[in-house]
Amino acid sequence: MFEASGSRDAAAIAAKQKLAADFKRKGILTALFSGLCYGFYTAFMTMGMSKGPWIDWYGANKAGLSAFAITYLLGALGAALTDSCSAFWAVLIAFLRGKLGDFFRCLKTKPGLVMVVGALIGGPFASTCYVIGLQKAGSIVVPISALCPAIGAILARFWFKQELNARMMLGIAICFGASFMIAYPTLGGDAPEGMFLGIVFGFLAALGWGFEGCVCGYGTALIDSEVGITIRQVTSGLSNFIILVPLFGMISGGGNTSAIVSEAFSDGSSVVWFVCAGLAAYGAFMFWYKGNSMCGAALGMSCNGTFSFWGPFCCWIVLGVIGGLDGWAIAPISWVAAVVMVIGIFTIALNPLDLLKGKEN
Q1: What is the pLDDT of residues 152-202, one digit of tens each?
Q2: What gap in Å lies between CA 308 and CA 50, rounded to an integer?
Q3: Do 159 and 214 contact (CB within 8 A), yes or no?
Q4: 204 near 126, Cβ under 8 Å?
Q5: Whole-model pTM?
């Protein structure tokens, strides 16, 4: 009888371990899919900013816009359009799934407010820096912005006293080494104008998303992922339009900010791409949040960091191959650096020896 009881206990433990392993595996696949969505979000948004009135704004005559307006106002507007479209998708999906009431209730809670704070940094600040970087330096900004897991690990060490051991420091060093490989071609005299500035904004985007990853880790532990992404995207979209776009419009001294915003919203040839970018952005952040809750924040954030590869790849396919736009071919060193970046990200998240032990078991 005791042998039978022990056998049942062992079988129950084995079944529980299998369920936990399957759940973690699904979480990893979910987080990896978020990286792919992020690549398409980047490509679709950039395609939208190369259509309709955007051609004139970024064209030879600049449509009478100042250099400040072209760099910052248009960057904020592109981010605002994408995040607003993403907020629309998030609210629509929450409504269809009966979670819209949870969205309003969570806004009044501490975890909901934490999500709002994270969204303000990851949205208006990081997203706008990302768009400006893309417009200035192209798709090489994508793997640079993928430094966010490394930056998140550093911030978590100082703010939350989380572990930062030798292996994680090695992974961080690998990531920064990969970013140097990407930036190295711009150090020469033949670098395109504005590329170095674009790379700087890529680093700023990584800083903002690293901060968001730390802060929102608390919120996502207590809030449903679909509700959390709705809070994130609504906050980001509204704050972009209410804060950044008017602010940059006033600084640029242009009295035509309202006309620019209206034209950007009413142009069908470009808006359709922003709608696609918004859906991809919804998937990128929602699957990131969901993957974090299933496999852990460190591993989930690292899996999402594979957009350092998917971003340039999707831009090359959508913009270069399908769209026929010049300048989206990726230099060999950038491809290599993107792969090195992925290796560094996973080194931060987990010990390679643990994977070998898992296979042996």
Answers
A1: 667 766 665 556 677 777 876 777 777 667 656 555 545 556 777 888 888
A2: 22
A3: yes
A4: yes
A5: 0.78
